[in-house]
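Dear colleague,

As promised, here are the two records you asked about, laid out in our usual form so they can be pasted straight into your sheet.

NAME FIELD: protein one
SEQUENCE, THEN STRUCTURE:
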Amino acid sequence: MRPVIIFLVLAGAGIIAWLLVVRPKNTRHDAPSQEALTVSKHTDSFNNAVATTLNDYGKLTEQFVNWDSAGVAATAQTLTKDLDNVKLDELKKDTSGIYETAQAFVDNAKGELQTIASEKAIRPQREAFNNLTDNLHQLLNTVRYDREKLYLQECPMAFDDTKPGQWISKKEEIRNPYMGLHHPTYGKGMITCGETKQTIDHTGKE
């Protein structure tokens, strides 16, 4: 009887050892690492309104690329409505005057859009577009829009081949809205003329 008991004890010990040592090695799975999500300091409605504005601004830029003055005028009206939907009220809780500064840039941008919508010739439309870009750039940096990385780009010869003009793009590749595809002198030969002057990045990502 005693040998049987000893056998059972040893067998039990062996099973326990297998469960504690061997089995975990065979069944362990390393959990995949997950990238931490960046939390925006703005509300979803605010971010969505800015994103819509930037999407229509991109449409406006492409219409300048195509020398589409009629399309430019129509999109300028859409952009004005987009900016009306960017509610800056949530910035009022900031005590450093960000709300007032941001509101001034919005108002200035809407004034430039009114010029774009009312002008028939593409040269004054482009001049207003350059001013619009400056105000949107300042607005994005003031509110620290943090949903996406953007690029401030510049053509060094946008006006009379001597004066620069700027635009905001979601891509690093240059697609010049001042030279475009139908320039009377250069045709489409200067579509890639320009460079990125600044990366607008408040996303907090490396």
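NAME FIELD: protein two
SEQUENCE, THEN STRUCTURE:
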Amino acid sequence: MIRFKIDILAALKKAGYTQTVLQREILSKSVVQSLKDGGNITLDTLNKVCCLAGLQPGDILEYVEVPEEKEKIIQNYL
């Protein structure tokens, strides 16, 4: 499972972007909510976050092995 390893909104705030500014000018309200909830984001959104916060994708995301997930993926190919 890929998940956020940092609080993205906190990193963006540290870089000078409040939630209000993000929602009004850069990202949609639903994307900001996904960032807040740790939900799914697109590569375009990840690119924007990296650009604005001065981070690399590896600074933001991590892979955590979930055995059930691997089994499910393998079963889909059998």
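A couple of things worth noting about protein two: The beta strands are 2-4, 61-63. The helical segments are 8-14, 19-26, 29-37, 43-53, 57-60, 67-76.

Best,
R.
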